[in-house]
Fold this sequence. Notes:
Blueprint: E1 5-8, H1 18-33, E2 37-40, H2 54-65, H3 88-100, E3 104-107, H4 111-116, H5 135-143, E4 149-152, E5 159-164, E6 168-173, E7 181-183, H6 191-201, E8 206-210, H7 217-227, E9 233-237, E10 240-241, H8 257-262, H9 267-275, H10 290-296, E11 307-308, H11 311-324, H12 327-338, H13 349-356, H14 366-370, H15 393-409, H16 415-429, H17 433-445, H18 454-461, H19 463-480
Parallel strand pairs: 1-2, 8-9, 10-11
Antiparallel strand pairs: 3-4, 4-7, 5-6
Helix pairs in contact: 1-10, 6-7, 9-11, 15-16, 15-17, 15-19, 16-17, 16-18, 17-18, 17-19
The chain binds one RNA strand through strand 6, strand 7, helix 6, strand 11 and helix 11.
Amino acid sequence: MKEVRTRFAPSPTGYMHIGNLRTALYGYLFAKKNGGKFILRIEDTDSSRYVEDAVRVIYETLAEAGISCDEGPGMGGDCGPYIQSERAAIYKEYAEKLVERGGAYYCFCDKARLDSLRDANGVGRYDKHCLRLTKEGVAAKLAAGEPYVIRQNIPAEGSGSYEDLVYGEVTVDFKEIEDGVLLKSDGMPTYNFANVVDDHLMGITHVIRGSEYLSSTPKYNLIYDAFGWERPAYIHLPPIMKNAREKLSKRNGDASFQDLVAKGYVKEAIVNYIALLGWNPGDNREKMSLSEMIAAFSLEGLHKSPSIFDEPKLRWLSGEYIRAMSAEEFAAAALPFLEKSKAYGKFDTVALLRLVQPRVEIFGEIPEKLDFLAEYGAFDAALYGNKKMKTDETVARQVLPAAEEVLRALPVFANAEIYAALVALAQERGWKNGQVLWCVRIALTAKESTPGGASEMAELLGREECLARLAAARQRLREGA
RNA sequence: GGCCUCAUGGUCAAGCGGUUAAGACGUCGCCCUCUCACGGCGAAAACCGGGGUUCGAGUCCCCGUGGGGCUACCA
């Protein structure tokens, strides 16, 4: 059995969007599942669309996603170069061969003539005008230096069929296909030609790409056939949608992998989630590592219909990853986000992390969860009111001074001790635990909800700060009365 | 417009002729609980429509409807 070789062939036009990344991921999973190779190829034949830095973004994104390439630009491999703009001579050579084999022909028509072939709606197809040129005629024009393109010679009759591994049999009538340009007048190939030549030369066995190529694949097969090359297996993938009618795209301002990482989603969770968009492992597993995905990957699990990117579910999965992290792993990943919090540096970092780990789903939530610690100030006394805790401003007026005394006298100022002391105080004075704990927590934090209870907040703040805040809160209550 | 293609809860998605139509996210409720969160339990929620085929159809076929794609010297 031949070694499986798949490729990811992005064009460097900007961001690496989620759909693209999923295509890369499936190509990688399929190759690795079958003990094969995963190749990266840069499709930059359209110089007008080249975006500076885009290649770097592709490398970085793949690396961050944990997808490693076996061959590619700067990575070695026997089928290079892996950047199409560096392969121009190869395409020219093969285009000329294809002409000799009758699969293509020179075309010298200018834009005006091409435009005249189209109706008001821009619909119309090339009329094979230049196919009628004699060999000598072509040679003469070439010698005269006339600009030209090479067009594919699509049969006038018949149809092309192939078996897509996810969509099944696809058939397209040749009369639906135009004699498209294979080699542009600037000497560069179009995607329609370069992808075939490269996939063949690079030994690609399984072409994995978006479903937008579903109906143009028959014309690629015509090229394989004209050269006498073996056709690869095709695996077309449905798009990932933003909603029912719009594709996820940079144009729509939708998040890229990098954007999601910047928002604080766990990288592994993003990769895990997009793997699940259009594929399932055959059981109910959802949280899977890359190696588990490789082991479970199968074409049977691929879906045909588009799927909508659901950020809430990604959030949940990211949260699952965060909760599964060790404290050290969490600290390492969370620190850049923690540093943006106003509380950072003012309190014990380890304690801050411990508070927040079970309470965030993405790292980006960390600052907002902790900022209040450093923003303590006057607050509405109505915050003391909570019907379930059976507490209000009046209760607070009694509780706070007593709590202050207890905390001042406490020998060890730590969570468990503080909690025990406050509960004991409640017992002693006939208050409900909640009345004491709620009032103290509110006085200490000025927040209705906090990432931790009264005793945890107290420990974090430290005795001195607690006493100061309690005193201040008590003072305000007095003024309010 | 023509051609290709898709169609199970709000979302992801199991199902491959006979099921009380899984599961997950989200939503709601309850429990746990020093608030929040975590965790536990539970609920509501789906086969796009119409024809066939069949004893029997979410599952097969046809038509319609709706979505996506292609129809470039973009990929």
